[in-house]
Amino acid sequence: MMKRMLALTLALLLALSCLTACGSKPEEPAETPAVEEPAAEEPAAEEPAAEEPAEAPAEEIQDTSKVADASDMATPVEVLEEGMEPVPASALKDGIYEITVDSSSSMFNIVACTLKVENGAMTATMSMGGTGYLYVCMGTAEEAAAADESSYIPFVESEDGLHTFTVPVEALDAGIACAAFSKNKEMWYDRTLVFRADSLPLDAFADGVIATVESLGLADGVYTVEVTLEGGSGKASVESPARLTVQDGAATAVIIWSSSNYDYMKVDGVRCDPINTEGNSTFEIPVLGFDYKMPVLADTTAMSTPHEIEYTLYFDSASLQVSP
After folding, report:
1. Which of 86, 94, 123, 178 would be 171's cystine partner, CB 3.0–4.6 Å?
2. Burial label, 199 (beta-carbon count in 10 A; 0-12, 13-18, 19+)
3. Res. 27 pLDDT band, cuts 50 70 90
4. Is the CB of residue 271 less than 8 Å from the CB of residue 247?
5. CA-CA distance, 125 to 119, in Å (whole number)?
6. Could you tell me if 189 and 108 are in contact, meaning their C-beta atoms sit under 8 angstroms apart?
C-alpha cells in the first residue's frame, strides 16, 4: 500500500514540475546590439542637365528663287574684246567725260553715260533706256541675292525722267559684273559692262599714257607704220603698213580700205573725204596718237541706206620706219 502511495506522490510531483516548466517564460538570450546600418544615402539632388549651347546660326541661305537662270534671260553678248587691257583711273586726267558702255544684255540698255574721274577713282552715271530695274549691285546675281541691302544701288530719276544708276568703275576696257534687279520679275539678272576707253577724247588721258609725235621724237618726214582695224562686223580691213606723214609736229596716215563702199570718215569730229575716185576707198586722216585704239567713224554705202560705223585704228609705234 505504501509503495502505491509513494508512486502516486512521485507521479503527482512530476506532473506539477512539468506544468511549472511549461507555464514560465523562457529566458530570452541577451540581445546582441544590432550593427547600425548607415542611413540610406539620399540621392544627391539632381543636377540640372548641362544647357546645350544655342545652335550656331546657320549660314544665310541664299534665296535662289531671286536669281534668274539662263532660261529667264536673253542670250548674253560677249562685250570684252580680245586684246583689251584694263585702263585704270591713274591713266586719266580728273574730269567728267561722256563714255560708251557696252552691255552684255540688250535688256539692260544704257542710252548715255558720264564718267567722273577724281582723286584716282572713277564712277559712272548710266542713263537707262527704260524703267524696269529698281537696283543694281556690283558683282554677280548670286552675290547680290545674298548681299545686305546696304550694298544695293537704287535708281535716281533724272530731270528728263530717265532712271540713272551711279556705279563705281574699277577700270575701263575690263569686264565688270553688275547685277540688276527687275521690278516686274523681282529677280536679279547677271550683266557684264565694259566702259570703253576708246570712246574718250584724247585729252582725257594723262600725259605719257598715249604716245605722240612729240613723245616719240618723230622728225618731219614720211614713214610706214603697222595699223590694225577693229570694230564693225569684223569683215572690213585696211592695208598695213600704212603711209604716215609727219609735218610740223602733226601726223597723218593714208588709210586704204578693203572695199569701195566708204564715202567719208570722221576722226575726232572732223570729216575726211576720199582722196581717190576709183578703187578701194582711200582717206588721209589725222593720227591723234600711237599705241592706243583711236576711235574713228566710217560711213558705208553698202547697206540700203548710208550708215556710220564705229571702228578703232591702232598705230603701232614700234613698227615705225622711215619710208624709202
Report:
1. 86
2. buried
3. very low
4. no
5. 17
6. yes
